[in-house]
Amino acid sequence: MADEKSMMVYARSTESQDKFDYFMATITGAILTYILQKYQPAKWCWNAATLEPIGLILLFLSFFFGLLRIQATMLVYRHNCDCLRAGEMKGSLIDAYESGTIASGIEPSSGRIITRAEMPNIINEYQEREKSEDEARKKHSNSAHTYFVWRNRLLVIGFLILLMAKMLSPYFA
Length: 173
Prior knowledge:
Layout: H1 2-38, H2 51-99, E1 104-106, E2 113-115, H3 119-168
Antiparallel strand pairs: 1-2
Helix pairs in contact: 1-2, 2-3
């Protein structure tokens, strides 16, 4: 029962996180597109109009980091699934090997029949696969967090620069 609740909470958490990431990327892209439609290019000099393209570039970078975050999160899910699958296959082979009643078994990933003598080697392969998938999951998880931080920083800084450009424009007119 507790495992079911944990799985439900985890599923809802990841679903809401995904929806929020999609929302942030969509809203950033929509705002960027809207501002670009209204943007009037101006000569580069020391005035408020110079700040506007800088803010737009930062918003574009925020949008890009948002897309990278979505991609990294998808890779985390894939590596997590592959890690769990390798662990489950390893566990089923260990159970079959330790029970001692089975002279041969079926390798779950390929469906080929393996003998009892081959089982330790296959178990080690699954253990190595599980470790490598876990390392890849951790790497992409760290990347997803980095993209999350930079997406938010660039979004806030870009909006602040655009706000400053609008507020300072009367002083440079």
